[in-house]
């Protein structure tokens, strides 16, 4: 009998920041911000919990999911393609637009 608890493979996606050379890998089980910081990519953030809105980014392409609806992400934000990367888990390759980073 095999051990069904053996390590499951976790999808890994590529995250690019538009108009920059920033590109990093993000696992499906970590937030986009966690992945960025672990790889030395400094992105704007504050609370880390979906409350302050500082990490608001524009999702140019790709899909993310949240464990629970983030407090600082309103319906109109989502309709405009925005997301909170501190609590967003990638579900595909992503291209983000972050004005504070893209304008450097
Ligand atoms: S860092 Fe505060 S909402 Fe993302």
Write a structural description.
The chain has helices at residues 32-38, 75-79, 99-102; strands at residues 12-17, 23-27, 56-61, 64-65, 82-84, 89-90, 94-97. By secondary structure, it is an alpha+beta fold. The protein has one domain (12-97): Beta-grasp domain (Ubiquitin-like (UB roll)). The mean pLDDT is 92. FE2/S2 (inorganic) cluster (FES) is lined by residues 45-48, 50-55, 72, 84, 86.
Shape category: globular
As residue ranges, the low-confidence spans are none
Q: Helical content, roughly?
A: 10-25%
Class by helix and strand content? alpha+beta
Quickly name the level 1 CATH class.
Alpha Beta
Strand order of the largest sheet: 2-1-7-3-5
Question: What's this entry about, in short?
Answer:
This protein is an alpha+beta fold. 15% of the residues lie in helices and 27% in strands. The protein has a single domain, classed as Ubiquitin-like (UB roll), CATH 3.10.20.30.
Topology diagram in text:
Blueprint: E1 12-17, E2 23-27, H1 32-38, E3 56-61, E4 64-65, H2 75-79, E5 82-84, E6 89-90, E7 94-97, H3 99-102
Parallel strand pairs: 1-7
Antiparallel strand pairs: 1-2, 3-5, 3-7, 4-6
The protein binds FE2/S2 (inorganic) cluster (FES).
What brief labels describe this structure?
104 residues; binds FE2/S2 (inorganic) cluster; Ubiquitin-like (UB roll); five-stranded mixed beta sheet; alpha+beta
